[in-house]
Amino acid sequence: MYDAIIIGSGPSGVAAAYTLKGKNILLLDVGNLPDRDINLCANFYDTKKNAESYFRGLIGDNFESLNNIDREYLMPKVKAPYQRYVVADANRFGTIRSETFNGFISYAQGGLANVWGAQLYRFNDEDLKMFPINASDLAPYYDKLTGLIGICGHDDDLTPFYGLAKNLLPPLELSSLGTDLLQKYSRRREFFREKGIYIGKPRLGVLSTDYLGRKKCDYSNLEFFKPQIPYIYTPSVTLNELIAKNLLDYKPKYLALRYKEMDNKIIVEARNIDTSQTDSFDAKKLILAAGTLGTAKIVLNSNEDFQTKLPMMENLPSYIPFLNFFKIGSSQEKRSFYTQLNLFYKGEMFDGLVMGTFYTLSGILHSDILFDMPFSVRSSIIASKYVIPAIMVLNLWYPAHIKEDNYVSLERSGDLHISYRDRVTGNVEKHLIKAFRRIGYFSLPSLCKYPLPGNSFHYAGTLPMKAKPSSRYETDPYGRLSGTSRIYVVDGSCFPFLPAKNLSFTIMANSMRIATHIESALDKGF
Amino acid sequence: MDVEREDLMREYLSREAYYFHRSLFKSEISKELADKYIKAHDFVKPSGTDSQFQTIRMVIDLNLDAEAVELALRKKNSQHPLLQKIKILTYLAECNSQYYDLFINEEPSLFKAVAVLTYHVLRTAYKLLKGNIVKLRYGLV
Questions:
Q1: What would the pLDDT profile of B113-137 be if each residue is shown by its tens digit?
Q2: For residue A366, which residues of chain B lie inside 8 Å, CB to CB?
Q3: What is the ipTM of this complex?
Q4: Distance from CA of B80 to the nearest CA of A (A)
Q5: Domains (ranges, CATH) in chain A?
Q6: In sequence order, what are the residues at sequence separation of 6 or more whose Cβ sits closer than 8 angstroms to the Cβ of residue A391?
Q7: Which residue of B lies nearest to A372 if distances are taken between CA atoms?
């Protein structure tokens, strides 16, 4: 019998496995992997210059890059041919049925984090005010993860939101557009503060210097097309180290279906996806880390509950393109990293803190955006050549509360049904457009994009953590599912509130915190 | 019968590729790119009503300005199959080294860029006007 079974190899599963590495641990995972034969040049623009040789990587054998022409929208990073393994099998094990939510469950090794932006932020007490824990409970685990991952960033105007830049690597180099924006913001800092706008450099799990045997960022602009780039931390980095050192029993090709709690153990049933045979595994503890939607499905299925509507939260996203007129006609910067700056908005346009990230458009296909330009097609192609080097896109994320209208339920067919009614009003976008005009960055409300909920991949709240759980679908402060003694939830499911800040780092820290508690219980023989 | 239909379809898609390419890129399409355009239709299935597909046929048969018609139709329907087909061609062209200079700017020049953009603003206005006239005249949907 295992000490613990972990289901899922995303950020939370790997953080738990890392914490419990001295124990007898089984990690069950479907574990889809990227193509081993990655054929791309050392730089995105060299790849495009020799595009015939790299058709498979740019467009794909099955024309994957053309996905958004006739199918549901996929973000550029997910639709790229070599990145498609992240959402592969999405419909094989039950689909997500929804007209109001375009979401995904990832069956890849490392989960949706394979396509994350690696933005890693500490939650402060304000972010955690609806949690039954506080920032000091998470602090030691944030520190430990900072050392494990290698996070870059520094102290600036965003330090009050992020905390001090302790043990961070130097920040990444900015592009000329990022540098220009930051300089102009710095000169008008008081104006922006009056508007409730704060800008600074992001804190990224991307290496600005060589670190623990991994090479630093090479600014190749290939992040949208090349999977598992070593300078971007993903959970697979740690998972593969644990596997190599034989510190856990990793069983890929297993889809966890349900669990059953007995007096002295927990039994997990999982299907081998190659043989379709269902196998059982026993353990003292079960750690659910299959991602917010995956974990909800396992819990509801284990309870044979096809009625309950579990709450669901997502960081609703929006996109604002900003054009800097003075940069029109600049040559395409070929050496850059797409994430540039972060923004926080705190003011009367929205009740709560809104977070944003400025991206350059280097590293993506112009075809992904040129049909949004207000020109005819040929004119768009030619205009994009001169305009794209002058555009930064601000991606905003909104916080989310648990609301009755936003829920997920399980159907007898195995499909998940999601209803998500929240929408972005556009007021913050209008406010920001007006403010940035002052420093020469122009946009129009009509150019803003509001994708269907689900596209942020920041899902949470299906089994919320409470000081005193009152229903069987709530968890206690140590992630233990109410009414059970051996089942723990460590992924985003247990968040009772979703701040606008990217949740991944806190998912990992919280998972470590809960795993430490489990380790201590195992040591005491519980 | 199926083989015959497939050949007809390939021939028709080839005609589309040549026509749209001339309209957008003002040159003859290479056989390699045309073949990719045809193959792309095995994976990407532009969808629309019969009358929308009839519009595509009319554009090609009557030698209408595909770019102008697309622009006139786009506002009402951003998923028109004409646009979907033009998108297929644009993606494929972008991922072809011959078109690299058309998409990527390597020589900085604000003056040239402003001149080019001004021209294309005016050109778009002209294409929109032309597209709407053609749309009305031929009853395109």
A1: 999 999 999 999 999 999 999 999 9
A2: 94, 103
A3: 0.96
A4: 10
A5: 2-523 (3.50.50.60)
A6: A321, A322, A323, A324, A360, A361
A7: B78
